[in-house]
From TrEMBL:
Pfam families on file: HxlR (PF01638)
The keyword Transcription is annotated on this UniProt entry: yes
One GO molecular-function entry: DNA binding
Keywords associated with the record: DNA-binding, Transcription, Transcription regulation
HTH hxlR-type domain span: 18-115
Entry annotated with the keyword Calcium: no
Name of the protein in question: Transcriptional regulator, HxlR family
């Protein structure tokens, strides 16, 4: 199967064989990475993703279309009238998991403010212990897979998430 390559990427793909430059042409901005984070967090609907990322509707729509064109996600119709879609990771999108975990680990090590605890602690279901920052489980040494982790947000992160969910809930009520 041939890869679908957009014109902008075509320039990068012709200019260099560097896989980092090519990958950055696909996922190289904060909004794209945050959209992928939300898909891994099992938020599949536009309004959920928008509230949880803080992206504007236009910005989010652009990123979702780009991720779909690049083969990282697929749209699934869940409501015919009016047409509404959910967004789900493809195999290509799910393969971004280790990259997201590496960004998380780096951010937890170098971007936390003094006194902040880890944003989210993961339990590795395979062994039942704290997973650490990965890519291998701190307890059993196994590779951390998305489907084998249970996340427990810190109190501060849980409060932030609850505040965002309240905005989502309020938006849903006001649109009725």
């Amino acid at each position: 199967m041939k890869k679908k390559v957009t014109m902008a990427k075509l320039d990068i793909f012709q200019q260099t064989l560097c896989p980092v430059a090519r990958a950055e042409s696909v996922v190289g901005d904060i909004w794209t990475v945050l959209v992928l984070r939300e898909l891994f967090a099992r938020n599949h609907r536009f309004d959920e993703i928008q509230v949880m990322t803080g992206a504007t509707p236009q910005m989010l729509a652009t990123r979702l279309k780009k991720l779909e064109a690049d083969g990282l996600l697929e749209r699934r119709l869940y409501n015919k009238r009016p047409p509404r879609y959910e967004y789900h990771l493809t195999d290509k999108g799910r393969d971004f998991w280790p990259v997201l975990m590496a960004l998380r680990a780096w951010g937890e090590k170098w971007c936390r403010l003094p006194g902040e605890e880890l944003s989210t602690n993961y339990v590795h279901q395979t062994c039942g212990h704290a997973a650490g920052l990965g890519p291998l489980c701190d307890h059993c040494g196994e590779l951390l897979r998305h489907e084998e982790l249970i996340g427990k947000p810190s109190r501060a992160r849980a409060a932030e998430l609850e505040q965002r969910r309240a905005v989502l809930k309020e938006g849903t009520r006001s649109s009725r």
